[in-house]
Amino acid sequence: VQLVESGGGSVQAGGSLRLSCTASGLTFEDSDMGWYRQAPGKEREGVAHIGAAGNSHYADSEKGRFTISRDNAKNMLYLDLSSLQIEDTAMYYCAEGHTGVRGPGTLVTVSS
Fold first, then answer.
1. By C-alpha distance, which of 9, 12, 6, 54 is closest to 30?
2. Mean per-residue pLDDT over the chain, rounded
3. d(Cα 80, Cα 2) in Å, to the nearest integer?
4. What is 40-99 written as a DSSP string?
5. 3-class secondary-structure state, position 6
6. What is the DSSP secondary structure assignment for residue 28, as one 8-state letter?
7. List of residues 6+ apart from 110 with CB closer than 8 A
8. Radius of gyration of the chain (CA)
């Protein structure tokens, strides 16, 4: 299983970004997928998850601001970030739900 994130960058507070995750080596359409993040000095935390059937779940602090989606035809996972806050600054990772395999991450930096 190989997962590679992209789309991170620097953005001002209130801005938006779309993170992408390219998946290979797995039957993507049958896989539960998730996004996690780890801020400097903090533990890794779950951000959003999407099941193979397309059902999604979000951490409370992200509800209404982040949207997880998937394109099974392209083996792609997405996370749309909006109304970004300084506290959202972190390395964002995508991960496969059963194996826990995750990518190297993509950095999101939010400034005032």
1. 54
2. 96
3. 21
4. TTS--EEEEEE-TTS-EEE-GGGTTTEEEEEETTTTEEEEEE-S--GGG-EEEEEEETTT
5. strand
6. G
7. 10, 11, 12, 13, 15, 84, 85, 86, 87, 88, 89
8. 13
Predicted confidence at residue 105, as pLDDT, reads 98
β-strands 17-24, 9-12 pairing: unpaired
- The first and second tokens of residue 46, run together, are 């779950």
In one letter, which amino acid is 99?
T
**CA-wise closest residue to 19 among 31, 37, 45, 32:** 37
Query: Quick check: 79 and 71 in contact, CB under 8 A?
Result: no
Which percentage of the chain shows pLDDT scores above 70? 100
Collapsed DSSP state (helix, strand, coil) of residue 36 = strand
